[in-house]
Design brief:
Length: 124
């Protein structure tokens, strides 16, 4: 059973930076696909960024050129570096994981494992 634990959320002013972490435990890590999603109040969960087991990242258009996803396989941890944040980035951020090919990466239905979420609040 894969367990995911997010950390690093908090409050930041617009234009600032924040780094989220997601530590994974259990299951096999050799073909793990990791992703970050976010959910605004009253809205559906949306994909933010994903990375496959060889480190190839994919980004949603809304965060491209501002956010960077990376992973440390030795620590079984994936990161989301959030730069130049905007008030519209305010949301609950979730880490998700799947084993093997994940297509489309942006569909929450493709991920059987989820973390509990970490809140990010960006003030104007």
């Amino acid at each position: 059973q894969v367990q995911l634990v997010e950390s690093g959320g908090g409050s930041v002013q617009a234009g600032g930076s924040l780094r989220l972490s997601c530590a994974a435990s259990g299951g096999t890590s050799s073909t793990r696909y990791m992703a970050w999603f976010r959910q605004h109040p009253g809205k559906e969960r949306e994909a933010v960024a994903g990375v496959d087991w060889v480190g190839i990242p994919t980004y949603a258009d809304a965060v491209k050129d501002r956010f960077t996803i990376s992973q440390d396989n030795a620590k079984n941890t994936v990161y989301l570096q959030m730069n130049t944040v905007k008030p519209e980035d305010t949301a609950m951020y979730y880490c998700a994981s799947n084993i093997g090919i994940t297509f489309p990466w942006s569909s929450p239905d493709r991920y059987p494992y989820w973390g509990q979420g970490t809140q990010v609040t960006v003030s104007p």
